[in-house]
Amino acid sequence: MTIHSEHPFADPEGARDAARRLRGRLSARVGLWTTGADRERVGLTVSSMLVVGGEPPLVVGLLDPDSSLGESLDVGDRVVVHLLEWEHRDLAEQFAGLMPAPGGPFAGTAWEQTPAGPRLASASTWATCTVTDTRLLGWSLEVVCSLDEAELGPDEEPLLHRRGRYVRPDARA
């Protein structure tokens, strides 16, 4: 077994995508978007999102258009947007499809079913939203939602994503 100082599958320095590298230097709060009920529940880890002030306030997310969530959302659908904490990093990996989730990503974690979709019981900050518009934007599906309700809890150990890794706010990446 060989230990590499860098990622063994990374593109060579001169061939790396500049836009992707720039985006990687923007720390982002990790969210979890969920919708559906029973066997129709789907979710996705999302770090490309923002909240836009106005009347009504909006939540905008950039989703993988080929993801189960991206394929299932239409105008009028409802979603739950969770802000994840450091303790949720394995769950974030599971919903991103990067870590095995025996029984599926909803198994083994407590959820409360809401009219907007499943809500992670251990998430202290979450919002329910209604999809108002979707469109392809670059390689992403832009999903615009009106903010219906927000619950703001403690924000002590937010889960951040920077340069392909989960980090704590005080981490140097």
Mean pLDDT equals 91
- Give the strand tally: 12
- Going by CATH, the homologous superfamily would be Electron Transport, Fmn-binding Protein, Chain A
What is the end-to-end distance?
A: 26 Å
Order of helices and strands: HEEEEEHEHEEEEEE
Question: How is the largest sheet built, in terms of strand order?
Answer: 3-2-6-9-10-5-4
How large is the count of helical segments? 3
- Described by the principal axes of the CA atoms, the overall outline is globular
CATH domain fold name: Pnp Oxidase, Chain A
CATH architecture: Roll
Largest sheet: 7 strands, antiparallel
pLDDT below 50 for ≥5 consecutive residues: which ranges?
Answer: none
Radius of gyration: 17 Å
Report the top-level CATH class: Mainly Beta
Q: What percent of residues are in strands? A: 35-45%
Number of domains: 1
- The class by helix and strand makeup works out as mainly beta
State the helical fraction: 10-25%
Can you lay out the helices and strands and say which pair or pack?
Blueprint: H1 18-24, E1 28-29, E2 31-35, E3 42-46, E4 49-52, E5 58-63, H2 68-72, E6 78-83, H3 89-95, E7 111-114, E8 117-120, E9 125-137, E10 140-151, E11 160-162, E12 165-167
Antiparallel strand pairs: 1-11, 2-3, 2-6, 4-5, 5-10, 6-9, 7-8, 9-10, 11-12
How would you summarize this macromolecular structure in one to three sentences?
This protein is 11% helix and 39% strand. It has helices at residues 18-24, 68-72, 89-95; strands at residues 28-29, 31-35, 42-46, 49-52, 58-63, 78-83, 111-114, 117-120, 125-137, 140-151, 160-162, 165-167.
